[in-house]
Amino acid sequence: METSSQIHNFDPKLDSRWDALSACHGCASVFHSVRWARALMASYDHNPIFLASVDDNRPRTLLPILEVNSLLKGRRGVSLPFSDEAGMLCFDGDEGRDVFEHALELGRQRRWKYLEVRNHMPCYPQVPACARFVGHEVSLTGGAEVILSRCESSVRRAIRKAEKSKVRTDVFRSLDSVRTYYKLHCQTRRKHGVPPQAFSFFKSIFEYVIKPGGGFVCLAHHEDRPVAAGIFLHHGRVGMYKFGASDEASLHLRGNDLVMWAAMRACSALGCDVFSMGRTAPENGGLRRFKCGFGAQEKQIVYHRYDLRREAFVVESSQTGAWVSRLLRLMPMPVFRGIGRILYSQMD
Q: Which of 8, 44, 98, 346 would be 70's cystine partner, CB 3.0–4.6 Å?
């Protein structure tokens, strides 16, 4: 652990003390954990820069960063890649300005193109956002009956329908269950025209997060055939829905609803009192309604990007054309998966 002016740089490859600091914050999720960082580093060889401002062994501000370097987008700092909502954790009213300025100076030294922080930054409340999403959180307090009562009647009916159709759910922490999930994942991604991540990414999540006890796979079967699945992670008080997939021909069985409900109960049993359903594009009304049906409260998720060449916060918008998605949906699965392996090695 290196020290400079009370700002410490933790190496998550070697030092697990970061988790003890981050877990104390009410907004910390699995994305702030050492386990998640190790999974990303194993998959994409990112360089970790985990900054902590500490007074008398008490954290003031934490900012986990991974340095991403690719041919397509160059070198940049991201807090954190492939994470719905990560970034700065401030304690006891601290605004985190010293930690953010320290990160910028490191970025200048390392010739980053930009530093991106994927949450609100108290030190710069009025700066423009480079992206906006809607987050959804469900309270897991009160026990299963109370949690279910907060769901909309349509969701409760869907859960009953799945159960009456003899759809069963099971929670697993095995690599075989990850493989089963991945098959559905690739099918679902092709339906939406979005390339899948490589299986090696999910294997890293299993090795570094699920296997040590930081997550699980929930599978729904009907007549011994997988019809829906999800990967769920947890850290501190927050359970997290990270990935979901389903068999399109079996959507009428409502396996997705049953998987989500089973995962919420599993996270509650693990001691979580908040269940995060991840980020959603504001214009995706169907997915927002699905998540709100489980009693989720919406919140804004804001990403900020500081361009180190311009020395300014910037607004950027990049959307893939609909024609690209249509083309990808027509590709054979091996080609489709190959595109994903190449594409995600360049992204964050």
A: 346
Structure tokens at 107: 């970025």
Cα–Cα distance, 336 to 328 (Å, whole number): 7
Instruction: Give the whole-angstrom CA distance, residue 300 versus residue 201.
Output: 28
Read off the pTM: 0.90
**73-93 per-position pLDDT tens digit:** 899 999 999 999 998 999 988
Tell me the three state secondary structure of residue 284: coil
Question: 């970025």: which residue's tokens?
Answer: 107
Sign of the four-CA dihedral 236, 204, 299, 98: positive
- The DSSP code sequence of 209-253 is IIIIIIEEEEEEEETTEEEEEEEEEEETTEEEEEEEEE-GGGGGG
Q: pLDDT (tens digit, 9 = 90+) per residue, 91-129?
A: 988 889 999 999 999 999 999 999 999 988 888 888 889
What distance in Å separates the CA atoms of residue 177 and residue 181, rounded to the nearest whole number?
Answer: 6
Radius of gyration (Cα) for the chain, nearest Å?
Answer: 20
Tell me how far apart the alpha carbons of residues 208 and 215 are, in angstroms, rounded to a whole number: 10
pLDDT digits (tens, 9 = 90+) for 189-223: 988 888 889 999 999 999 999 999 999 999 999 99
Look up tokens 């386990």; give the residue: 35
Q: Tell the residue number behind the tokens 């992670």, with chain if given.
A: 233
For the chain, domains (ranges, CATH) are 2-126 (3.40.630.30), 135-300 (3.40.630.30)
- 327 token code pair: 């083309």
Longest dimension (CA), the chain: 62
- d(C-alpha 157, C-alpha 232), whole Å: 23
